[in-house]
Design goal:
By secondary structure, the protein is an alpha/beta fold. It is about 45% helix and about 20% strand. The chain has a five-stranded parallel beta sheet with strand order 2-1-3-4-5, with helices on both faces. The longest helix has 20 residues.
């Protein structure tokens, strides 16, 4: 897999800018789809469900604090639908409340990133997640015997 298809669900234009900047600097994603609130995200998934869009994202970055439909409710919606439930979701938020973190993992988020105030740290966090996911996504193309350590 050369390029990952990523859906970013984020309402903060500054965070969207930093996210795009991180992707460009690491040259890891093409194309990036953006939904700027919960309603736009629901519309996106409805279009996928009705085949108006044909290409599902490989990975979703989902902000928790969204207008109209919050990120945790959107996470539940995505993971409830057979067609989308296997898409990994990385939660984004500006707070690190233990309850919120537990709630996202309870509903099958695969990772949780607390947005740092520093754009460089945010860029590095995004790049690390994408790099790890890209390695995992590439595994089916590798001979499984090459992954086994022989003593």
């Amino acid at each position: 897999m050369d390029q990952l298809k990523v859906l970013l669900i984020e309402d903060n234009e500054g965070d969207i800018f930093l996210f795009k900047e991180a992707l460009e600097s690491w040259n890891m994603v093409n194309p990036l789809q953006i939904a700027r609130n919960g309603q736009e995200a629901m519309s996106y998934f409805n279009k996928l469900e009705t085949n108006q869009l044909t290409s599902k994202p490989d990975l979703i970055f989902l902000d928790i604090n969204l207008p109209f439909i919050n990120g945790i409710d959107l996470l539940k919606y995505i993971k409830f639908h057979q067609q989308f439930k296997n898409i990994p979701i990385v939660m984004l938020t500006s707070c690190d409340l233990e309850f919120e973190i537990n709630e996202t993992f309870k509903h099958y988020a695969c990772h949780y990133i607390v947005k740092p105030l520093n754009g460089t740290d945010f860029s590095n966090d995004i790049a690390q997640v994408l790099s790890k996911w890209k390695q995992i996504a590439d595994l089916p193309n590798v001979n499984p015997m090459n992954l086994v350590y022989h003593a």
